[in-house]
Amino acid sequence: MYNGVCCSRNVSVGQQMLNNERHLGVAETKEAINAAAEAFKTWGKTTAKHRHDVLMKLYALMQEHHEDLGKMITLENGKPLAEGKVCMRVYCALLSSYASVGREHIRFIVRRAEEAVRTYGDHIPSPFPNIRNVTIKQPIGVVSIMTPWNFPSAMITRKLGAALAAGCTAVIKPPPETPFSALAITELAKRAGVPDGVINVVTTQKNVADVGREMCENKIVKKVSFTGSTNVAKLLYGLSASTLKKVSLEAGGNAPFIVFDDADIDKAVEGAIACKFRGSGQTCVCANRIYVQSGVYADFASRLAEKVSAFKVGNGMDDKTTHGPLIHERALEKVQRHVDDAVQGGAQVLVGGQRLPSPGTFWAPTVLSDVPAGALVNTEETFGPVAALTRFETEEEVVALANGTDVGLAGYFFSRDVGRVWRVAEALEVGMVGTNTGLISVASIPFGGVKESGLGREGGHGIEEYMNVKLIAFGGI
Question: Which residues are in the Aldehyde dehydrogenase domain (predicted)?
Answer without folding.
Answer: 22-471
